[in-house]
Give the backbone structure.
Amino acid sequence: MLTKKFDPLKGKILEVLNHEGKIVNEKLEPKIDDDKLLKMYKSMLLGRIADTKALQFQRQGRMLTYAPIKGQEATQVGSMAALSETDWMVPAFREMAGMLYKGASLKKLFLYWYGNEEGNNLDKSLKILPISVPIASQLNHASGIAYARKLLKKEEVVAGFVGDGGTSQGEFHEALNFSAVFDLPTIFIIQNNQWAISTPRSSQTKAETLAHKAIGYGMPGIQVDGNDPLAMYIATEEAKKRALKGDGPTLIEALTYRLGPHTTSDDPTIYREDKEVSYWEERDPLKRFKIYLENKDLWDDKKEEKQRKEYTDFVTKTFKEIEKDKFVDLEEVFNYTYAEMPKDLKDQLDDYKSYLKEVK
Amino acid sequence: MLTKKFDPLKGKILEVLNHEGKIVNEKLEPKIDDDKLLKMYKSMLLGRIADTKALQFQRQGRMLTYAPIKGQEATQVGSMAALSETDWMVPAFREMAGMLYKGASLKKLFLYWYGNEEGNNLDKSLKILPISVPIASQLNHASGIAYARKLLKKEEVVAGFVGDGGTSQGEFHEALNFSAVFDLPTIFIIQNNQWAISTPRSSQTKAETLAHKAIGYGMPGIQVDGNDPLAMYIATEEAKKRALKGDGPTLIEALTYRLGPHTTSDDPTIYREDKEVSYWEERDPLKRFKIYLENKDLWDDKKEEKQRKEYTDFVTKTFKEIEKDKFVDLEEVFNYTYAEMPKDLKDQLDDYKSYLKEVK
Amino acid sequence: MPLKTILSAINSTLDQQMEKDDTVISLGEDAGFEGGVFRATKGLQQKYGKERSIDTPLAESAIIGGALGMAVGGLKPVAEIQFSGFVLPGFNQIVAHVARFRNRTRGTYTLPMVIRMPYGGGIRALEHHSESLESIFGHIPGLKVVIPSTPYDAKGLLTAAIKDPDPVMYFEPKRIYRAFKQEVPDEEYSVPIGKAKVLKKGTDITVVAWGSLVRETVKAMELLKDEGISVELIDLRTIKPFDKETIEKSVKKTGRFLVVHEAYKTFGPGAELISTVNVKAFLYLEAPPTRLTGHDITIPLPKGEHHFIISPERIAKKIKDVVKF
Amino acid sequence: MPLKTILSAINSTLDQQMEKDDTVISLGEDAGFEGGVFRATKGLQQKYGKERSIDTPLAESAIIGGALGMAVGGLKPVAEIQFSGFVLPGFNQIVAHVARFRNRTRGTYTLPMVIRMPYGGGIRALEHHSESLESIFGHIPGLKVVIPSTPYDAKGLLTAAIKDPDPVMYFEPKRIYRAFKQEVPDEEYSVPIGKAKVLKKGTDITVVAWGSLVRETVKAMELLKDEGISVELIDLRTIKPFDKETIEKSVKKTGRFLVVHEAYKTFGPGAELISTVNVKAFLYLEAPPTRLTGHDITIPLPKGEHHFIISPERIAKKIKDVVKF
Ligand SMILES: Cc1ncc(C[n+]2csc(CCOP(=O)(O)OP(=O)(O)O)c2C)c(N)n1
Ligand SMILES: Cc1ncc(C[n+]2csc(CCOP(=O)(O)OP(=O)(O)O)c2C)c(N)n1
Ligand SMILES: [Mg+2]
Ligand SMILES: [Mg+2]
């Protein structure tokens, strides 16, 4: 068992593909078919390009707040690739690449960052929950879904995401405990990107690693190189197996880094040093995965260039489309409060409509 | 260090005085002077007698809900005895014996169970916070006090109590993390009495022990025989030393048992077996402590009998006094909402007074 | 028809719904094996198993957030909070998520779930066991809030709440849990959410109450029976969305309005009802719409609780005052 | 006198209070080193050290419960919650403890503490960054709730809040954090908690607003300047306990009342003000006391927020409607 072999109490970290693109642990290299490997890489690349463009658009004042994912693509895609279509993803708010891998449309995802609830209206069959802003609260939803699917005898697992900062919240604790108590098929993935806005991981908790926290819930925990998509893949794969066997949840701490700002309204130069950023830039998940694919003859610079151009065009086109979609209809903002609009709310809507008519 | 020597990860439990009254670990026997030993025993005894009487009174319909402490006296008194007068106690609601040791008046404590806020109005110099009903929330107060006293350069520690059930709450998590992050002089004491109302410890968490939870906060944790006052004493003493050195909080899991019902409205026979209760009755903290004192020639049956009678009279007298004190004045229930009563609230009070006058 | 208390009506309704629909489940602290501290869920675990009548860890956010996830995952969870004072640690889940999931996802994810809890004072309880926080939840868009005052309505509203496609907060007036019995049909029926009930017709004053205060108001009317005041008594039953039409119709007839509640006065439920009456029947008002409420003080412990709890005498006096205005 | 925005007035007030009183401290997520996401606490850590300008872990219960403990331990903590939507995980601490400690201990333990947070919509923010929950806190006995609408009051109310022996919730209208500057004296001064301010005298209608809507109402009055309507504008400033006398006096003069708020309508703050006006000035009313409020829907994301946010035009129209009733 990986969680035994890479015991966080012994200071072990699971790595397969190192930052130079070399397999450092051959026995652990997963057998992923070529199509899937390419899909993984492409999702990471699309995520990266969308991220870059989003920041540009935002700087031009054309988009609202956006939470960049740059640097965290492997954590997200590596884990999601280990799941099936029937499995669930319960995101926080910085999981775009994982959502793309799981099939979310780029347009929807960015409709959200453009300030439209429609962006959360992902096709139900994708089994991706909406973005959750209140830190760590989504993990209780992950437990609940896992409970329901298990009771309904579905062979499904639920992956819940949270940040390093999120591990300080009470809801983190309650959710992990709940899942563990009922042996639920949940996989908790901490994207430890080292920062919670301006607060470094070291100020968040004295725990030696975030994986150590698993011990308090009697569940296995493991620290994984989160910039290594293969390590994330096998850690998640094992967690999934355990979950489906009825052996309960797993806590995966993915060591990664947020290369960009917290959100587009954040200036990270205030609180962190360039050399930290460059250290992690060398550990870029895309770089190493590209080398891996090249070594497998699945990828090359030409393909890369072509794909980048294609995605850049696609992203630009998508953003421009979104920009056209100007405002949300008045009815839309009232319609989804309840299945059926109560009379009083209908009256409020009608009042407001008559006001609009009058002032026109 | 005890927390190293009795590592919960290795299945170790700190014991000094076993249930037969024998010292099982001579090196660890604390040097407590005779007066203090007697004070400890007497507090336990007073607690036990008050507890017994309270249940009687309640059964006669003369008292409201009351949360019995029977069986948990050593956990409370052993730990409080290791602290100084200047240290703080932040109780949950089942710590009567500890509060008595620290100087709270029996009358005040039971005024509370008779339904009078005045029961929480303990002399400020005692440094005992009021009873806290919302499970685990008081632990954040413990952290805050510890923060303040440290900043104000006071050489004081804060002991925060919580039950085994309370470890599932988010606030448990947040408080421990907060104290650990700032190296606060806090001591967290879990009274693991095996049950949270009808919910057994095993349904509360999959953690191997509750002391394991310390690891998630990077603080030392230890499992202690909570029915052994000497073990509780030395564990707390060490935690206090560590706290005052600036080395931060400690988590003590006291293994004990609630011999009585959860509260006087609870019927434990519904959910637990007699033989479990008898197992723990053999491990009664008073029994073993009495033997220990007898072996030291500090106590004997005659003293016991005399003391029991004295306390029984004292408790009965106190309860009867409390019963005389009938209802709370109208002003009292309004007066403490703010330092100064806002005009509107004054109007509400006056209105109500005129109503009372009119109907008289 | 069997006679039931509010408590036994709740218990048998849960039983009936769990029997009829495998996706209905119950969860809460001590709510499984022992059937809850009030025994509202008694026998369910024995009948439907541990998986459908769940003893949870002691963690309200996990209960409510977990119930949300269960609803997303295809169940219809009925979560029990031990006392309404202990819903507070789960407040974030209710306000930030439960109330919003439908709107957040434009209807993709909906939450058929119920959060049940005993509420209100008058049972000589410890701190945090007596609060009436209905207006706080009523303020949050996306929630529905119901409060039965009779065994019949307890069943009908709970059935409606479980079948409702949206989350419903179901407050139980624990003071009258076992106060009286009423005939409750065995067959399934719903009391519609959003509809008040005129308990007694009258012409001089409209009095609105809910929960245990309905009973206290009936007692007040007894006290007034020789005074020649004709009271129209409305049991609000649903706090959000509440039934403006029934109130409007009544006040237009009586010209006088009194709302009685135990919740704190300021920014409390009565203020909303009064404001509504103002809009709907201003020109019909013969006296200022009035409220009789809990004082703006923390509800006292038992030795002072009588200063807070609203007696039939006070209600009677207030009715007279308003009629004489 | 220096010109300050609301934000800079808050910042310099914290600085002044921390300078004058060693027991005043500030804590919150990202509130130390970087000075908070809005920079309200900028420079404090650099000046007073990490121990007095604290970066906390990401945990609101710990921040608020911790602040309570600090107050018990002899400090005067000023806790920052990053956005009012994120106070919810700390709701239990506020309602179950902060509001009650004085009463629970019959005055032995008192809590001189402030909980600050930016609130309100209109800044094109993400979900949970725009709520207006003032009436929920106003409903809880033991809390005080203040909202400044100008830099001058921002300083005066914050000073008063820090010096108050009881806990004060201090809501900051972030939409106008930097909207305009005003002369703010350097010396220490307090604006009394519980006192509203008549911003403009008038005779036809009393309009009450607070926070960013004061400014919007002033704009509305501009729009109305040729209509011959004399508006009396009151900035409420304190939500709990609010200033009934000033409102009463005004409504007795004008006979008409409008309250404008962004908080949700039902069980919202306006209902309370209307009910108060009813009691205090019923016989003087020439039109039903009226409210213009946020709709009972979750405040929309930016692409729909304009349907929710209350414009000066809507306020102007409503004023006309009430005056013409
Ligand atoms: C309950 C709550 N408190 C505060 C915030 C404001 N906030 C948004 S993101 C964030 C930091 C999150 O850090 P982390 O969990 O490490 O995730 P990351 O942003 O690094 O992905 C904070 C404090 C929030 N969204 N929810
Ligand atoms: C937040 C909250 N939820 C529920 C309760 C109701 N309640 C009172 S005591 C208790 C069990 C506590 O168990 P534990 O922490 O083990 O303490 P013990 O009673 O055993 O001393 C519960 C659920 C409460 N007081 N507070
Ligand atoms: Mg982070
Ligand atoms: Mg216990």
Summary: The pocket of magnesium ion (ligand 4) is lined by residues B 163-165, 193, 195-196 (CB under 6 Å). The interface with chain D takes residues 117-118, 120-124, 129-130, 132-134, 137, 139-149, 151-152, 170-171, 174-175, 177-178, 181, 332, 335-339, 342-345 of chain B (CB under 8 Å).
